[in-house]
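User: Here's a chain of 644 residues. Predict its fold as tokens.
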Amino acid sequence: MKKRSMKLKALVALTVPVFGMSPVLAEDTVLGDVVVYTASGRAQSIADVQAAVQVVGERDLQAYTGTSVTEALKLAVGVDARPNGANSTVTMRGLSSSATLLLVDGQRRTSKYGSRNLNLFAVEDVERIEIVRGPMSALYGADASGGVVNVITRKPALGSGPGGRVASTWGRSAHGQRETAITGASVEYGGDVSAHRVSVEHRDRGLFRYDRDSPTADLNRIDERYYAYDGYARVGSDHRINWRIEHLDQNDTGPGLLAAAPPSRPVAVPFDAYERERRDFVQLGYQGLVAGGVLDVDLSRGHSDAKTTRAYPTIETTDFVQHQATARYTRSWGAHTLVLGAGSSRDELDVSLNSRNATRVNDHLLLQDEWVIAGDWRALLGVRHDRFDDFGSTTNPRLSVSWQPGPWSVRLGYGEAFRAPSVLEQYSRFVRGGRSLIVGNPDLKPEQNRSWEIAFGYAGARLRAELVAYDSRVSDLITTVRKPRESGDPAAITVRSVYTNVSDARVRGAELSLAWQLDARWFLQGGWEYIDARDASSDERLRDRSRQIARLGVRYDAGRLSADVQARYHFDYYNSDPNDRSTDAPAFNSNFGATDLKLSYRVTEALTAAIGVDNVFNTRAPSNYGSATEPAARFAYVSGRYVF
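Assistant: Prediction complete.
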């Protein structure tokens, strides 16, 4: 019986990320023993993780408005998350957004243009978000050069019986703009052998204009619907099968204006702009005890069919099909815990603005060993080999050694990562804003990242703190470079940008994170980061990055009443004004930030009501920040949540 109990505990540990168990498992500490999966490919206490990790849990999510998943990363240290209406960008440690791998339950998702967009996921479906900073290609392969963001969805529990929840948010920005109505609901049933959950969400948001007389909008209208079904079944005592089905229907619209191009078009012409996408995703998984270890297998298929008017009058289309198959086997031998993995993915991408269709096949093998050396000393050694049918092969190692005497810890780590150029960066040719031409480069080489980091931490019953310093050397950095017009360019074009491998870049920085339970009612979390990102040859700062970012969250929980104040401020953000179309547009520094407030009251055990204001001081992003970021102005809202 004891042996059977140990087996079941091993299976439960494996399925923490799959079946949505609470990330806070220990009740004898105020902060709790947070369990994460993403950092090592298996469930383990955050105190034992050999990486810089942060978890946005259930209570953290409740502090936000709920307008997008991206907004839940506002207090994530080392992450610059920008929700821009229908789209979003997420960068980590001063690298590009393409160097951040976005996952949902450990799997990638398709999106228009072959890109990634965290805004196009249902907030209602999120249980928690796991964030791992630093190069993770040794575990996750391409696109994990800066780190990984893994969204863990809600799952039904065996034996829970019937249940569900309904949540709604209504609000608007200053001057009656950006009228918002968001409603999400779910029903679930947990039986003795199987469990099921169905969820829906509708997101409806109005236009926003800084200049209310402008013929175009800074943020377009959002009309998005999300549907998901999760289920799993226990097969015997040691095996489980799970499945997930998703559907997204995006139909975002707004007023467009086609720039004048004399003599054929002497004046600007208005048109109806839109972003449309239908995305389907199906996943089948297996978890079980096999030969003394735990086997985890996932098979999935994703498909996006999208149309946009970004280059009107040309309608740009995307047809993106992605197949993924992964298997991991975890087993402990004495002081060693080994993870063996293999998998294959196939991307079939047809984007109308590209000069050719593209199919990319990526096969991989990985091996990871977590070793308890002696006493307080631990080590992690990992390596992954990837083979691309269009780029050849690459092998990326990861090494970390830690010393954990009591609540203190010291960790030294090294990792290598790579980012293959996207199909868009290779073969595209498209116009933005009527005057900017972006051109792909089929001769691009993959980016390579070699990174060191050292971390000092403390994890007590009421206080957790960590200071991390890192040094990343990036070779063949992929970016757009402004170049003069060429004879074949459209007449209205004033700026020509070409995707290029520039000389090496060096990104150095420091991250300080803090979580402090002051007493039974007050909780404080915050972070500060410093980023020095430079071109290694010219020593010039890389653009579109802040030198420093400071974050602070104050939480008050007293019985039925709770309050959250959250602030994030950028210092020395370095970029040029996007409205300056010259090839030598100067970059300059700017400072900006926003503070949010939310008050919640638990009316009954099942019903909670809240009011809040985002961007309390009605600040506006500076001119060099580019497109408008949510919330673009002060946004007031009310919300309610009913759990049954």
